[in-house]
């Protein structure tokens, strides 16, 4: 399944391939404020279509996750990082996907406070 994602103003857009069957709600100091619902895909399944120059990167704590948001509209539609085994991953904010019903997948709580 191919999903299309974008920021609010549309300068940033991407596509990502996979099957979204669950989402994560994280309680870290950033996700808790943003209300992001995340799903993780291997980095090679993620393709930024446009907006590289429109993205700003924010890092905090251990600086392992690149929180990338549009500098025009402020929406963080994805982030880049690694899983615990060191595989490069894309964290997709499924609220930013087109034609995806967020309520169609179960949401798991993740204790990300220490990340
Ligand atoms: Zn934007």
Report what the structure shows.
The protein is mainly beta. It has one helix at residues 31-34, and strands at 2-6, 13-17, 23-26, 38-42, 46-50, 55-58, 66-70, 78-82, 88-93, 107-110. The strands form three sheets. A five-stranded antiparallel sheet has the order 4-9-8-7-6, with no helix packed on it. It has a three-stranded antiparallel sheet with strand order 1-2-5, with no helix packed on it. 27% of the residues are buried. The chain binds zinc ion. Zinc ion binds next to loops.
* Relative helix content: under 10%
SS strand fraction: 35-45%
Question: What is the H/E string?
Answer: EEEHEEEEEEE
Rg, alpha carbons: 13 Å
Q: Look at the helices and sheets and give the structural class.
A: mainly beta
Structural descriptors:
single chain; 115 residues; mainly beta; five-stranded antiparallel β-sheet; three-stranded antiparallel β-sheet; 3% helix; binds zinc ion
Outline:
The protein has 115 residues and is mostly beta strands. Helix content is 3%, strand content 42%. Strand 1 and strand 2 form a beta hairpin.
